[in-house]
Amino acid sequence: MIRDTRPILLTNCDSSFLSCEKDFEAILRRLFISSQPYSDILKRLLVVNTKDCLDNKESKVIKDAVAAASLPMLIENGYIRFSPRIEMPEHEEVKAYIIISMDYFTPNEENPFFRDCTINFDIICHNQY
After folding, report:
1. What global pTM score does this model have?
2. CA distances in angstroms from 112 to 16, 23, 106, 107, listed in the order given
């Protein structure tokens, strides 16, 4: 979809992109920390790479994997990404990914120090059927 950006470029934008990192932190806190029963399900979908990862709730291996999956570990190991680039090394296990991106920044009409944007969640998982 082609957007006409001329009116946006002509306005004086007093805002910056300094709040994007804070917004990403708030999103991750909401997904993985404050929504406790659902965050474990989301971690299970990301970390456990089997088709029955949600069915087998009593498995000690799965419980240990979910308990070890902290938010910094998920980001460090590449399960959560902020750039849409996925590197696929040759002999690495296929993972599930959540890619969080912000797009279409526009000046806020009420407060010129803030920008409105669209937040996209792309979930990429391997089909094992």
Report:
1. 0.72
2. 10, 18, 10, 6
